[in-house]
Write a structure and sequence with these properties.
Helix content is 34%, strand content 19%. Helix 5 links the parallel strand 3 and strand 4. Helix 1 packs parallel to helix 3. By secondary structure, it is α/β, with parallel strands linked by helices.
Length: 183
């Protein structure tokens, strides 16, 4: 009901924000498709508990929202990996005139992400980021909290003398064509 109500507000000229746990967004799939996306309404859906939600139990893990929403026409999906990029996404979200999902995890930020991917604090240029490892032997690609696990894997691979690049995706849909240039 809340998502359809947000669609009604958007149809009346407003640009509402709708906050929901990722797992509960599954129950509003038809509303997202029919009431928001097909009408290209500027509803911003703030998807809380995106990814594994430690301590909340299996029913609250937000592991399906990307699969459910990424194929829906007119929907953009952002997945910040740092507080700075989340703030930048929220700041720029008022400019869009289309449906937008901003997914964020439960829990604290991994400070390595900002230090490695945003060393200059340039959060406004979110999208696709790479560590910039020359001639990598392996490439790991991830988004959201999974990037922390990738950084842990890099440490293990470095101990085995494997040069590893990590690609951080913060724009999940529509597909970011600049990602192709990274390879």
């Amino acid at each position: 009901h809340a998502l359809t109500f947000s669609a009604g507000l958007a149809a009346a000229g407003l640009k509402p924000y709708f906050a929901v746990y990722s797992t509960f967004l599954q129950r509003a799939y038809d509303n997202l498709v029919h009431d928001v996306a097909l009408q290209k309404l500027p509803v911003r859906i703030l998807v809380d508990r995106a990814g594994l939600a430690e301590g909340d139990g299996a029913t609250h893990h937000g592991i399906f929202d990307v699969a459910l929403a990424s194929h829906i026409p007119n929907v953009s999906i952002l997945s910040p990996a740092s507080y700075g990029s989340l703030c930048a996404m929220l700041s720029s979200s008022g400019e869009t005139d289309a449906p937008l999902l901003i997914r964020y995890p439960k829990g604290e930020e991994d400070t390595r992400v900002s230090r490695l991917f945003y060393p200059d604090g340039d959060y406004e240029n979110y999208g696709v980021r790479a560590l910039g490892i020359p001639s990598p032997q392996a490439v790991l690609v991830g988004y959201g909290t999974a990037v922390s696990s990738l950084l842990d894997a890099v440490r293990i691979l470095l101990a085995a003398h494997v040069r590893t690049e990590v690609i951080l995706l913060e724009t999940l849909a529509p597909y970011d064509a600049c990602a192709v240039r990274l390879f």
